TrEMBL record:
Lineage: Eukaryota, Viridiplantae, Streptophyta, Embryophyta, Tracheophyta
Protein name: Phytocyanin domain-containing protein
Domain called Phytocyanin: residue spans: 1-57
Disordered: annotated segments: 52-88
An example Gene Ontology molecular-function term: electron transfer activity
PANTHER family: BLUE COPPER PROTEIN, OS07G0570600 PROTEIN
Amino acid sequence: MLVTYENFKSCNSTDPKFVRISGNDSLPITKPGHYYYICGVPGHCEVGQKVDIRVPKTSTSPSPSLSPSPSPTEGHAPAPGPSKSSASSNQYFKHLLAFQLFIATGVLACFAF
């Protein structure tokens, strides 16, 4: 369940902002912000079944333009690698996906006990 920071610190599940209880729930995080989730099963939050998620704002600056590469005079030129911005973006989404899977596993664990 999604709770306030104060309720997160004290493991207070009496006033959640959002609750899912089917046991097969996902927690879509669609915008930047700070999210606090705890397990609502008595005693679970106190033993660590809670998570603090911080989603950073994405950069709104434009990507740097790529200049055309010179034509090779002889032989084969090495292929250019991925740009730094696309590599960073891919890494961000890999971490975000892994973290969402971690959250889903934690939520499922709340309902397994």
